[in-house]
Amino acid sequence: MDELCQSTHKSTPIFNLIKYLLISVLLTLAAPIFAETKEDLNATCLDKFTEGDYDPAFSICTKAAEQGHASAQYNLGLMYNNGTGTPKDDEQAVYWYTKAAEQGRGDAQAILGVSYSNGTGTAKDDKQAVYWYTKAAEQGRGDAQSILGISYSDGTGTPKDDKQAVYWYTKAAEQGIAEAQSILGVSYSKGIGTAKDDKQAVYWYTKAAEQGVAKAQSILGTSYSNGIGTAKDDKQAVYWYTKAAEQGVAESQSILGVSYSNGTGTSKDDKQAVYWFTKAAEQGLAEAQYNLGIMYSNGLGTQKNDKQAVYWYIKAAEQGYTLAQYNLGGMYYNGQGTAKDDKQAVYWLTKAAEKGSGNTQSISGISYSNNTGINENDEQEIYWYTKSAEKGYALAQYNLGGIYYDGQGTAQDSVLAYVWWNIAAAQGHDGAAKNRGIIEKEMTPDQIAKAQVLSKEYYAKYVK
Fold it and tell me: What is the mean pLDDT of the chain?
């Protein structure tokens, strides 16, 4: 029996196979299941993304994000934001940015601030924007610090606070954020949120300018040109104006044109002056348009071309540039570069005169006096001569004396005639001196005494 039993349990090939399979199954059932961790999933997502395999990257990243991996949540937000591996969906982007931001991801907090600020993927909410910018800024995010500074400067989403603005601009500037460096320069230059300090302004303008901020380069050029916050240095001014001009800053292009025209900080070069005036003029800068008109009118740095001069004078004059209006009036009066047109001449001369140009006011008076391009108008004639005379222009004073002597459009007044001729004579006008001698013989001692007192008063007020 024992032997039977023993022979019954004796191993056979089939028995051994069954035993092996059974053990394998049992071991499999007993073994723990090892799933990929969220860290592994995130790493795989990044690998796939780097390889440009965006669809699986999105799928894997979603799994990691749903398991609470902050980086995966942020990256998933970016994928929704940019439509990478999935259709673009700003609302989903904000959802995942929020998940990551709530776990302390500074980059997610910063971009969530932008989303609230712009109303992208969520309702626009400046207070929420500031909340998230602050969270990111407190973690040292330079971009968020810079934007937070702007929020305090503008009072957007928070009460306006220039000191807090400077605080955050400084934090960002010290991390090399160029925009913050440039704005900090402005703060020191104008004394906004901090004590005015031109040297500190130049320091921060320089930092920003060296990073290519065009506005800072332009302002730095002005600082060197005027010796504000640094030693005056025309060569350095031209260097920075050039940097800004090459980036399309119209004001720098115009100033650079003046530098080449005058040979200030660089060799005199009228062709280069015309080049930069043209660049600025084409951007609509009135001063450059006027200067370009001058260059064409005088054939400086380019072939003389009165039509082009008139073209650019018109551009500047239409923007209210007084000198261009004055020159344009002269071009119409003389028929230079355009058909002679007295009405247009008077129109533009009057525009200039209204801006307070004494010489133009005198010419406007002459236009009304001579009935040039307009109907005779004694009141306007007196008005413009008076304006010009009070600016100290001897010719206007001479003509105004004649009006009062003749009683043209006003009551005859020998005293005022004497006063204006006396003042003009004191400035070297021979005709006025001659007329003063004539009228003096016609006046009473009391009139002469009164006229001399008024002459001293007017001279002190309108000439000196």
Answer: 88
At residue 359, the pLDDT reads 52
Answer whether residue 447 is part of any domain: yes
Number of folded domains that form the chain? 2
Q: Confirm whether 228 is domain-assigned.
A: no
Structure tokens that stand for 440 in this block: 């003096």
Which backbone phi and psi does 48 adopt, to 5 degrees? Answer: -65, -40
| Helical residues (DSSP H) of 283-393, grouped into ranges | 286-298, 306-317, 322-334, 342-354, 358-370, 378-389
Report how far residue 4's alpha carbon sits from residue 284's, in angstroms, rounded to the nearest whole number: 114
Distance separating alpha carbons of residues 149 and 172, to the nearest angstrom: 9
Q: Are 256 and 242 in contact (CB under 8 A)?
A: yes
What CATH number has the domain bearing residue 85?
A: 1.25.40.10
Domain ends where: 117, 136, 155?
A: 136
> Tokens 């207070």 sit at which residue?
127
Residues 6+ apart with CB under 8 A from 451: 414, 415, 418, 419, 422, 443
Please state, in angstroms and rounded to a whole number, the distance separating the CA atoms of residues 412 and 451: 14
Rounded to a whole number, what is the distance in angstroms from the first to the last CA of the chain? 146
140: left (phi over 0), alpha (psi -120 to 50) or beta: left
Q: Which amino acid is at 443?
A: M
Model-level pTM greater than 0.70? yes
Task: Give dist(CA 60, CA 394) in Å, integer.
Answer: 87
Residue 10 counted as domain residue = no
Q: What is the chain's length?
A: 464
Distance of CA 423 to the CA centre of its chain: 46
- pLDDT < 50 stretches in the chain: 1-10, 14-34, 358, 361-362, 364-375
Distance of CA 210 to the CA centre of its chain: 18
Residue 17 lies in a domain: no
> Which of 120, 136, 152 is a domain's end point?
136
Cα gap 250→426, rounded to integer Å? 44
CA–CA separation, 405 and 409 (whole Å) = 11
Full domain range(s) for residue 463: 392-464
Rounded CA gap, 26 and 94, in Å?
48
Q: What is the pLDDT of residue 102?
A: 97
| Nearest-angstrom CA–CA distance, 382 and 416 | 13
The residue to which tokens 């660089």 are assigned: 266
CA atoms of 209 and 150, how far apart (whole Å): 19
Q: State how far the Cα of 10 lies from the Cα of 415, in Å rounded to an integer.
A: 151
